[in-house]
Structures are given as C-alpha cells and as structure tokens.
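Quick question: what would this complex look like in 3D?
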Amino acid sequence: MDIGFILEISSLYLEAAKFTLKLASIGIILSLLIGLFCSLVNYYKVKFLKKIVNWYIELSRNTPLLIQLFFLYYGLPKVGIKLGAFTCAVIGLAFLGGSYMAEAFRGGLEAVSKAQIEAGLSIGLTKAQVTRYIIFPQALAVSIPSIGANAIFIIKETSIVSAISLKDLMFVTKDIIGIYYKTNEALLMLVVAYLIILLPLSLLLTYIERRLRYAGFGN
Amino acid sequence: MALLEVIGLNKYFDGFHVLKDISFSVEKGEVVVILGPSGSGKSTLLRCINGLEEIQSGQIKLNGEVINEDSTKWHLIRQKIGMVFQSYDLFPHMTVFENILLGPLKAQKRDKKEVARQAEELLNRVGLLDRKNFYPRQLSGGQRQRVAIVRALCMNPELMLFDEVTASLDPEMVREVLDVMLELAKEGMTMIIVTHEMEFAKAVADRIIFLDGGEITEVAGAQEFFTDPKTERAKNFLNIFNFKEYKKGVDNNEKI
Ligand SMILES: Nc1ncnc2c1ncn2[C@@H]1O[C@H](COP(=O)(O)OP(=O)(O)O)[C@@H](O)[C@H]1O
Ligand SMILES: [Mg+2]
C-alpha cells in the first residue's frame, strides 16, 4: 500500500465525493417531491392522474437505472433531445428514487387511522388542513425509516453515473486504476469515501428510528 | 324554532337500510339521550348529523337551515357541532394544549391569546390545567376523554354530540367524565348523548329517544321512559340493565 500515493490522490477523491454528494442531494430532494406527489395522488384517488402515477411507478421499479441513463443520454439525442450528462443523471435518479419514496410515503399515509381523520374533520378543519396538520406529521413519523433507507439507496445508486462519463467517486477510481494501475489504493479510497458519506447517515437514521419507536405516539 | 331538526332521514350502507325514516328535533338547551341495543344505528345517526356519513334521503336542519345539501360546507357546519368519540381520538403528535388549540386557530382563525385563555379556563374546569403540556399517551383514559371534550368545547359549538364516551373507560374513570357532561347540561349546553350508563341517562336527559333496528320506536321524557316504557322492546332493553329485581328474585328463590 502506497501511503504517499493515497495522499496524492486524496484531493481527487474529495472533489469526486463533493460531486457525488451534490448529485445525490438533488436526486433525493426530487425523489421526495415526486414520491410525495405520487403518494398523495394515490391516497386521494385522483382520477386519471392515478393511472399515470401507477404506470410511472411500475416503469420506474422495473427498469435498471443504467438502462434509464443510457436511454436518456444516448437514446434521446436520436430523436433530437440533447441533455447534458448531469441533467440525465439527475433525471435518472429522480425517476428511480421517486417510486421508492412514493412507497415510503404510502406506508405512512396508510398508517394514519380513519378515526384520526374524522377527529380532525369534526373540529371543523378542511380536508387540506387535516392533511397538513394531522395526516402528514403522523405519516411522516412512520415513513422516516424507509425514507432514510431510500436516501442511502439513492446515494449508492449514484455510482452508476460514471457510465455516462460523470466524474463521481466511481469514475475517479476507474480513472486512477487505468492510469496508474494502483488498484488497491484506489479501491480502498473508494470504500473509505462511501463509508464517510454513508456511515453518519446510517447512524443518524438508527438514532431517529429509535427515538420514534420510543416516542411511540399511538395510544 | 328547534336548534336541530331531522326530517325523514334514511341511511343505507350499500343495500343495508341502517336508519329508517328518522325524524326528531332538539330544542336549544335540551339534552336528548339516544338509547338502543348495539347495532341499532345510534353511532351512524350521530355521524350523519355532522356529515361524517352521507344520507340517502331526508333533511337535517341546523337553526332552520338545511345542512345536508351538495353545496354544504361541512367544515363550517362542524364548527358549530362538537363531537366526542368513544375512542377519544386525540392527536397523538400534539400536546393537550395543541390538541385543543388546533380547531379554534386553524379552522376558526381566532386570536391565539383569546383561545389560549379559553382553553386554560376549560382545562381548569375539568381539572386538567396542570396536564396542558402533556402528550395524550401520558394521560389516563378518563383524562384523555376530558381533553377530547374540552377540544370540542373550545370551538364554542351550539350542539354537542357524544357517542358512548365512557364505553372504553375503566369503571373508576367513568364518573369523572360523566360529571363534566352533567355540568355542561346544567349550564344549558344542547347535547345529544348516546350512552349505556342508565343512571346517568336518567339524570341528564330531558328526553329519551329509543332506537331499535334503525327506527325510532319510542320518544319520551326521561322520567316517563324509565318508569313506564310504552313498547315491549324498550321494556326488554331496560330489563337488561335492571339488576336489582334480578337479585331480589334470586334472594326469594333461596328463601323458599
Ligand atoms: N361503515 C359501515 N359500513 C357498513 N355497515 C356499517 C358501517 N358502520 C356501521 N354499519 C352497520 O350499521 C349498523 C348500525 O351501526 P352503528 O350505528 O354503529 O350502531 P350502534 O352505534 O347503535 O351500535 C350495524 O349493523 C353496523 O354493522
Ligand atoms: Mg355505536
């Protein structure tokens, strides 16, 4: 193991880690928004939209991210739509993560009892207010563990974007191996970088989960 | 003019005729107790009155105004009709105080200071002011139910609906909740109460409505209903609760 070399390449990894984090953050936020939208459409059984949403969820869950990226990056230009690699990566991640987040929200929404909703209605709240003040906070508490798990899943999935030449951690690793043949050092750095990103998140999640279970708001 | 008027109400669950041609009215300040066997439609009737169930025919009028039309803004009507459920249904993610303030602040858009003062006053009256920052899970059943009553009262409703509010409580907590309701009755609150507490019904009711198989089979003053029920069904129903005579019978048999 060449420590000097590791120190030398660490700045490359720092850059790549920043990129991975940026991509993952945008992906996670968009996934949350899409997931929320889809789960609300399903929860309130919005005609027409419900169909589209369910098609989307099926499509998203049953195609690999790599194929989605290739389609966006290499396929779309053939019909005249040219998107940058970063845009493709963001769309791909959001497309994938949205359906997972929708599932997470669905679980939470379904956990809120009809009695809670009726109690909200009976103090004169509108449906929208019941959603905001009663359904939403209770659903979120139930959903948070799966939302967190999905966030970690999305971060890991970003490693695929090197396939469309984006300079994430995976890309830098392959690059260094290709140029210097220092496979061990590069792979070690790759694992360490992901650990540094994922471990705190994972621990935070465990902590929140325990807190939520402890608070156990039910009766 | 009656505060609440129900005229020819019919309610079906799919093909099942739950409420059959129900008509009655409640005057302002009156306490009406609905009695009847389990499954006779008491809860459904209360739920129809505040729009939690749709009805298939008939009219419900509040202060002379028909409230069961397609154009009815139920969230506005429900601000005038408080409802308390058997299972309390406090919001578990909010403190006692937040539970009580939610409706007045968000639905009625009232001033926070004014509402907070009223909420404290009401909590004080039911003996729970020191619990205002507790979460529902930290309270006993009886305390939760008293909070649920305060939550409804803080909206300043014109009519209160109570659906077997003591049915889930341990016996030693029943009294504290019933006392709150008796107090309300004394102050002139208009109430429709579904209960199986016969002594309480006798004490609190101005009028008894007896519901059986989805039909009103008897309406009478409280005194009259308990001492001299007119229908066979009501007599049978009351006998179920009548342990005294049953015990006497046992005693007599033993003597013989
Ligand atoms: N949501 C529902 N769907 C179908 N049937 C129902 C529903 N709610 C109540 N019922 C039926 O309607 C009848 C009256 O119920 P309910 O009003 O709860 O009676 P009670 O409160 O007098 O015990 C019962 O036979 C019950 O099974
Ligand atoms: Mg009932």
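Answer marked as accepted. Residues 54 and 115 of chain B are 32 Å apart (CA to CA).
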